[in-house]
Each structure stands twice: as C-alpha cells, then as structure tokens.
Design goal:
single chain; GMP Synthetase, Chain A, domain 3; binds 5'-O-[(S)-butoxy(hydroxy)phosphoryl]adenosine
Length: 658
C-alpha cells in the first residue's frame, strides 16, 4: 500500500456506521439474515433467484461446471426475457405504469404494462418483417427514449441478442461494434435532446456504414412524429413498419437458459472493446434477484436509476431487473442541469420516486451545485444506490444528509459489465452502512483478495490486494463474443490453473484493487489495469492512445489518469511528435478531435501535453504510472527500471515551465 492509501485507510477505519431506520427494515424485501445461509448451499442457493421468473421449462441442473470457465446455469431450462418483463404482469397490473419517461423538453409519456406489451409486440413484428430471426445480433444505437427498452424487449422476444451501443459513442465506435458482432441490423433514431439541442444522431449511422464492409439494414425511429433530421432513403422508418403491424402479437420464443440475451461492449486493456456476452436464464435470474433484495424494489414503487440504458447499469437495473419485478421504472432523456440545476429533484418530486439510483460522479456534481437545489423540492427517497466508482465519505455524507434526509438507506454496489449484477453490496436491512465501503459479499458470491503471486490474503486483515471471485455466479458473462481465448486470458489466466477441469481451480480476476477491512467490509480502490473511470464511464487507455496515434503529427502517445474533483478521473494525453513536426494549437485540436471521432466527446482529454520523450522501461514499455504521478503532482514512483531515469523529471520541469 502506498502512503496515501494508508492514510485513506486510517481515515476510513474510524468511519462511523449508519444504521438503517426501523421503518426501512420493517418493510424491506429481505430482513432475515438466514438468506446468507440459504445461499451458502452452493450452487443450489441461486435457485431462489431463478424461482422469481416464469420458465417455459424448468431447469434440470442448477450449474454445469464441467468445462470451466464456460459455466452453464439452469441447464435444460427454457424461458423468454420479454415474456418475464412484460406479458406475465398483464394479469395483475396491466394498467400500472411500467415505464415513465420524461423528455428533456418536458414531454412526458407513461407506458402501462399493457402499452408496453402492445409496443413490444408490434416492434417484434416489425423486426421480423425485415428479416430478424432468432440468434441474429441487432445493434441498437438509441438514446434515453422509450424506443430503447421497447426495441431491446422486442429483440428479446424474438431471441435475437441485442447489442446496445451508448448513444454518446461516435460513428467509428459504433462501426467497430457493428463489425465485431457482424451485426446485420442497426436500429437508430433521427435525434434526441441535450441541453435544448436536438442532436443529429442518425448521421452517426450514416458515417458508420461507410466504415463497415458489410451492408447492415437500418431501421430509424423518430424523436417527434416527424423526423427533424435528414434520414437516408435507404433506411426503413420504424413508424411506417409499425403502422403495418398494428395489434400484431408475436409469440415469445422459448430460449434455452444458456442462449445469449445480449452483448455489451466494454473497454479493456487493449484498444479493441470486448463484447461481453450475457446468457438469458442466469442473467435474468441474477438481476431480478438483486433488484428485489438489494434495490428493495416492489411492484408499487416508482424506481429511478439515472444511468443510461446504453451501459450495463441501465440494462440490469433500469430494464431487465425492475421490469421482471413488475415495478414502475423511470427514464429521463436529458442533461441533469437543464434547464436548471434542480431538474433531477423536480422529476423526483413530480413522479414521487421511492428509490433513486445514481453514480458517485453525479453525487459529487450535485454536491458542488449545492443543497439549495434539492431543498426546493418535496421528494422522499426510501432507498438510494450508488454504483460505478468508489464514493468518497464526504460525498456519501452529503448524499445521505441532503438527498436522503438522513432516513433513506444508501447502498454502495460494486460490480462490472462482466458480472451482470451486484457482487459486493450490503443488503440494506441487514448491515449497517459505512461510507466509502461497498460492504459485504452479495448472497452466494465469494470474493477474496490475492497478492500478485496469486496467493490468497488472509480474510479481513485490512491489506490491499487483487479482487477476485472464487465461485461462479449466474449473472457472469459467458464469454467475450467470438473470442474465448481473450475471455480466458483477460479474466481467468492470471489466478487459475488453466489446464484443470475442476472449477475450484478457476478464479475470476476483476482487475480492481480492494481492501478487506476487519469488519468484513470490502472497500474497492479502483482499477489495477490500464482502464480508467471517467465520470463513471469506463475507458481503456489503449483505446484513447490508438485514437491519438491516428493523428499524423504524433509519433507516440500515452494516456494517464488525472484525478478530478467531480469526474473521478480524466485523461491526460502525453505525446511526442514526429521529426519536423511542431507543437501547435492545430495539432492539439487534431488530437482532441481524433478522440471525439474514434470514441466520443465524453472521452475528451483534460490536457494534451507535448513532451520530448516518454518514460519507458528498457524493453520499451511505457510507464504510465509515472505519468500519472506527474499529472497528479505526486512524488514520482520508482524510476530505476527506466531506460532513461531522467525522463519523468524532464517532463515535469517542462510542464512546470510551460
Ligand atoms: C468498474 C466496472 C457496475 C456498473 C457500472 C460500471 C468500478 C464499480 C464500484 C463501487 C468502487 C466501483 C470498478 C469496476 N466500480 N462499482 N461501488 N465502488 N468501484 O461498470 O463500466 O464495467 O466498470 O467500475 O473499478 O471494475 P463498468
């Protein structure tokens, strides 16, 4: 542990605990600690989650672990995710709101379960009519509008795995994902609102099509009744198709539990994003179970997760988990400070939200804006979740006091795109809250800390180590789409005996560092690999670097994470230029532009720093850690392995002088 980590640890060690209120405990979905004993019966405990779903055919075996790490869950079972999220609620609550949507421009829409049923069926019929069949991968590039969950559920109904690409991603990022999945269909929309501007979204698909070799069909939704941005004549308008399929019903396809439900691309340590492939049965069971026990969702609640459905949080905890439980899930299209900084609280009041789920980055932003905004509105949360990054105790306390009114519980949930759902989290009625700690393992989950040599650290001894998971769980990814080898190398090879077919010899590496405190609570420190977390968005440094390398003037680039008060981390780009090239505003703009084009504006660097040389080891590996020390004005780490140990100091001096 570094000095800094030790200091933080000491500070957190005295952190006080906060007890959930008796009112909360009294109404919680789970308030009996016996749940942990039930899940200790591994893997049978997980049947409790699967029982929450309707199966067309019950499973024969909970877990087939005979070919690790290719685990199979609920083997022999068959079900449909769209049926579970929509149809099965019609008997009891067809007139209850399934989705409530607020557009940035103030438009409001409520879809009851009956409405959702109709729209999902019509969309499924529309997709079928253009040729979508079971197992075809459908790329969905939609923002936070009802069309997004409707399209996802329509795909699920047909057994066509969706691959949702976050709307903020650029055309090139979209093209890369379409290409990797060899997807024949892209579903998009003309535009959506961000800070009063109706962004031209469809041009990203136009551009992406010029970057893929095959010729996907495009279906276009419109944000208004009429399209406000120009739409290529080759594209099919969703509204036209829907008009041809009014009131059509499409039988939900019975999917084997192991059939894939979706792909979700995420950044890793190489330039190429990984398509995390999630299964139907295990995934849906896991997110439904955790939505019930961790999020404490009940059908009569209004639940609001402010994430974007384009990331895993939105898949698991806006769409699949909440809708499988038959609750009301709220979506908001636009910017949180538009047209004023009270927008979030205004929405919370208007819809009388019970459960609010957001990221530490958002909390830090709300805190910066000040408590006068939430104070203006009358809302009353019972439960609040944070996800995506470590939350600083200061931000936690502010959230607890000013948003939760010291009565809502806060649940800090640690998980990843790969894990499908929460893995380390308190069950809100069962443990006391401790600011800055994700808490204890979720039922049935076996996290541990290993040192770099792969030895298990003593449990709860306060040391930092590599966070690993020792047992498989139903929500875990099946593989990296089309690349089993990468799946094994990325997540398993480091801490597993890869020639063993005994699952006990296989250990999942999360890529995070964590501390397991004496009280049994885990505190996740952050990524140990070259992945950064910018405002809750995961970004691979290699992805950024390869975008920068596209700029002609650039010889070499390295990206380091700079700490940022609100965003958590922001990228600093260090570049050396080719012979004969000079540092200029033009080159700087070209670099920023390349990142926006290859990835998207959300990845824009904080600084572009032109340097004479980059710190490299004798074997030529760039030492990003040292650049990180420079960016964060910290003492330089070990420079002895550098080919030229004076380089970091030179860079620092150069920056200070410049
Ligand atoms: C990475 C995963 C999980 C959905 C959103 C992000 C970091 C996530 C926490 C938390 C500390 C956290 C980790 C993890 N992270 N939750 N509660 N405390 N760190 O999914 O984009 O796949 O990123 O986010 O570093 O590895 P993701």
């Amino acid at each position: 542990m570094s000095n800094e980590e030790q200091e933080l640890e000491a500070r957190l060690a005295d952190q006080e605990y906060f007890r959930p209120s008796p009112e909360f405990v009294g109404q919680a979905n789970v308030s009996d600690p016996a749940i942990y004993d039930r899940f200790d019966d591994f893997p049978a405990g997980f049947e409790e989650y699967a029982e929450l779903l309707d199966w067309d055919k019950r499973w024969d075996e909970v877990l087939d672990a005979s070919n690790p790490p290719f685990y199979e869950w609920f083997v022999g079972g068959e079900l449909n995710a769209s049926y579970n999220c929509v149809d099965r609620h019609l008997d009891e609550r067809k007139n209850q709101a399934a989705l409530r949507w607020e557009g940035e421009d103030g438009t409001q829409r409520t879809l009851t379960y009956q409405d959702l049923y109709r729209e999902v069926n019509e969309m499924a019929a529309a997709l079928q009519s253009i040729g979508v069949e079971e197992d075809d991968i459908v790329t969905i590039h939609l923002p936070m509008v009802p069309a997004l969950p409707i399209t996802m559920l329509a795909c699920a109904r047909l057994g066509a795995p969706h691959s949702v690409v976050f709307a903020g991603f650029s055309a090139s990022a979209l093209a890369e994902r379409v290409r990797d999945a060899d997807s024949e269909y892209i579903i998009t929309i003309d535009g959506y609102y961000r800070r009063d501007e109706l962004l031209d979204h469809i041009q990203k698909t136009d551009q992406a099509l010029t970057e893929v070799e095959h010729d996907p069909q495009v279906l276009a939704w419109t944000r208004h009744d009429d399209a406000r941005h120009e739409i290529d004549e080759e594209y099919t308008m969703v509204d036209d198709l829907l008009a041809e399929h009014r009131r059509e019903e499409v039988e939900p396809v019975s999917r084997a539990a192991e059939d894939p439900l979706f792909l979700m691309y995420t950044s890793g340590t190489t330039g190429k994003p990984k398509g995390c492939q999630h299964r139907t049965g295990g995934y849906l069971a896991y997110v439904t179970g955790t939505s019930k026990y961790v999020e404490d969702i009940k059908p009569e609640d209004t639940y609001w997760c402010s994430a974007d459905i384009g990331w895993i949080t939105g898949h698991s905890y806006i769409v699949y988990g909440p809708l499988a439980l038959g609750t009301t899930s709220l979506m908001y299209e636009g910017a949180p400070d538009h047209p004023h900084k009270g927008r979030i609280w205004e929405i919370a009041e208007r819809y009388d939200v019970d459960i609010f789920h957001t990221s530490p980055t958002a909390v830090r932003m709300f805190m910066k804006w000040g408590e006068e905004y939430p104070e203006e509105y009358d809302f009353d949360f019972r439960h609040m979740t944070t996800v995506g990054e470590p939350i600083q105790p200061e931000a936690w306390l502010w959230y607890y006091t000013h948003i939760g009114d010291e009565s809502a519980v806060i649940v800090d949930t640690w998980w990843q795109t790969e894990t499908g759902g929460h893995l380390i989290t308190n069950l809100p009625a069962l443990q006391d809250m401790k600011p800055g700690s994700a808490g204890v393992p979720a039922p049935g989950i076996a996290p541990a800390l290993y040192n770099d040599a792969g030895e298990s650290l003593e449990s709860a001894n306060g040391q930092a180590g590599n966070l690993v998971i020792e047992n498989p769980w139903p929500g875990m990814l099946q593989t990296v789409y089309g690349d089993d080898e990468r799946f094994i190398n990325t997540y398993w090879a480091d801490f597993s005996e890869t020639d063993s077919d005994d699952w006990h010899d296989w250990t999942y590496k999360a890529g995070d560092g964590a501390v397991h405190a004496q009280d049994g609570y885990f505190r996740v420190l952050g990524r140990l690999d070259d992945v950064m977390n910018v405002a809750g968005h995961r970004l691979g440094t290699m992805e950024l670097e390869s975008a920068v390398a596209e700029v002609e003037a650039v010889a070499e680039a390295a990206v380091a994470a700079r700490e940022h008060a609100e965003k958590g981390e922001v990228p600093d780009v260090y570049v050396t230029l080719r012979e004969g090239q000079e540092e200029s505003e033009e080159v700087r703009e070209a670099i920023v532009g390349a990142i926006e084009t290859e990835i998207g504006p959300f990845a824009r660097p904080a600084n572009v720093l032109f340097v004479a040389d980059l710190p490299k080891t004798r074997s030529g590996k760039i030492m990003r850690r040292l650049l990180e020390d420079i960016s964060n004005e910290e003492e330089l780490g070990d420079t002895t392995t550098l080919r030229d140990p004076s380089v970091p100091e030179q860079i620092r001096e150069q920056i200070q002088a410049g």
